[in-house]
Records
---
Amino acid sequence: MARAALFEFSTSSAAEIVSAIDAKITTIQNLHAFRTRMGGAKKSDKTYPATREALNILSRMRQQAKDAKTIRNILSPYSAELAKGREVLDIIQPVLTAYRLYYASHGIGLMNDQVLLLKMLEAGGELEEITGQTILEMTTD
């Protein structure tokens, strides 16, 4: 007699599958095994499209986790400096000085606060391009 399934992939939505994997009710390996039993990737994509969508969501989540780890690794030396009691402006002072010199060589005299504001506005514009969403408070009237 066959063992009862802990999770039914055939009737679940992609979000339910991802939630079940996240809650450790089932695993990605079980999802792949189900897709293989149902005739392989090509046939499963047609018959059970939610399983392909769940795999895509899980793939994006895995990539986001890797990206977050990369960012944490980049910031870790600076976090250690903050933990030692250094101020943020002290840590970024060399970058601010380099930008101030760059702008001064182009005839634009800016103070540290103005350089920070300019760079944050540029970063906000890049964020709007990436996400496609406007930052309402960023624009001034």
Note: The mean pLDDT is 88.
---
Amino acid sequence: MTATALFLFFLFLPWPVAAAAEKSYHWRGLRVRQSTVQDIKQALGEPSTEYREQLLYEKVSFDPMHPDVKDVRLDTVVFNISAKGVIESIFLSPEWGTTDEQLRPVLGEGRKMSYRKFLSTFGEIKIGAGTRPNEKLHYVDLDATCEVYAQSRILLMYIRQDVVTGHYLIQLVVFY
């Protein structure tokens, strides 16, 4: 009887793990390469500034629907819009002092690496006035630490790690 119970335990163990691995996070329900300008305005209201290829929002909370991250405030949110009118990328700039620990309840653990290594997944790294993966300028130190959530296509860009707590200060949260 015990052998059967152990067999059933190990047989069904991978199912919850696989389901958790498939879960991805989409900020406020907005999805890169799917959501439109109208979807953005429906979720966040009218932007502070609107350009043909960008919408800018100021002083928004990260995720008001998640009880563990209600205190995470964003200075700015930039939506880059493609020629087809859908979201190309989302750049969230949190208030100074926001750490990775504040977003862990929503995002969990990602894979830490250098920004250079992350960019290399897009092919050749071009360095000049900025770095251009897919022709977008990024003025970030190539050796800066970042954390990648490949399933959700999220990148956390860190400023530095606090030597006392070990937590990372967040510079940007990028949905790509």
Note: Residues 2-175 form one domain.
---
Amino acid sequence: MYTYTMTFVSPEPIGNANVVNRHSSDACKLVAQKLSKRVLELADFNWTTEYSFDNSLSYLQEPYTINFVVEVRVKLDMLTILDREAIYKRCFEALVKHEVLLTKSHCIENDDPEKPKCIMCFDMKSVA
């Protein structure tokens, strides 16, 4: 198994920007709920050693119309990385079982205060 960083995006705003700064378990619940309803789309996944945080930040900039970005860093086996649904399931499971912690969260102000552009990053407890 190798560690991968999955990047999920949504044009929908997170809602209240204060949610981003809440306790890790609240953030896990929120993101798990959005994953289960497919509000978040898997945009990218990278072997973590080849990953740059700037990749995820770029989704919040023009020409993208993305308002919410989530990174989830977990270990995946070779069968999981071959199946998009398995990736969703594994990330959902990591959030629900609290295998990951919120390690970074940030909102960027934009023209519409009702639609903050936010990013949340979750990492495995063993390395967070």
Note: The chain has a mean pLDDT of 85.
